[in-house]
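Data deposition worksheet. Section B asks for the primary sequence of the deposited chain exactly as it was used as input, without tags or linkers unless they were present during the calculation. Section C holds the resulting structure in token form. Section D is free text for depositor observations; keep each observation to a single sentence. Incomplete worksheets are returned to the depositor.
Section A, Depositor: J.P.
Section B:
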Amino acid sequence: MTNTEERAEGTCPLVYQCRLPLSTSTVNHLADLLRRHLKAIRSRWRILPPGRIAVIVLAVLRHDQRLADMAGGNNVSESTVRRWRDELIGLLAAQAPRLDRALKKVARQGGEVVLIDGTLIRTRRRTGKADRRNYSGKHRSHGLHFLALTDENGRLIWISAARPGRTHDNTAARHDHILTHLRAAGLGALADLGFRGLDNDILDPVVVTGYIATRTHKLTRGEKEANRVLAVGRAPVEHGFAHLKNWRILTKLRTDPARATHLLRALLVLTNLEINR
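Section C:
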């Protein structure tokens, strides 16, 4: 029987360098966060310094590098890299703002409206009936659904929990009590047609959506103009999603869906660090 773990004669493991397109301040923030955590739990030793660990974890998140590859290039085990990744994701997710605090901060800064939208993060298709709820008929793919709020400039301010891909935008918004929090903060929200029916208050609506044409009603010129103005106002929310999805680990999630919420909120913190540098 051939031992496949034995290397061929004259071969050796190769290591290559890869540019990490992130600022030094982001790396330092993550390293300082880890140092404070190690001090709090009274951990005296790690096989690599916090700065090196921060770079490894950021490479996994930004480039979606395989854990085994990062482990082999740094002479540590794959389980060690996985533990570092989960540890730092948890520390970053704890810094993500709560919905009520995020909205009150926007109001204090003079904001009047926020932008809301939902999107799907694709995941691997898993076997069994439990994965059927993750199938999105709209996107024709398996994934996890989440809502995001941005300010008028497209800066991400809050991300909801990850839910099964078949979840409707309105269902997720009702579960998170979006309307209640918006009214408490005195803010309005611009949304797409997926949120029609969320706010039925005709006299004082909080969530503003566009007009939709039906078989019996064609849009008037004024309604078309209103839809155009709304689309222009909502454009920055797509920029916020684009910044978030620059983290290639979200290209197709291979992590446990139960941990996706912590991952998304950790990436929210990292995204804002990069934008505000």
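Section D:
The radius of gyration is 22 Å.
The beta strands are 113-122, 135-136, 141-150, 156-159, 163-164, 188-190, 207-208.
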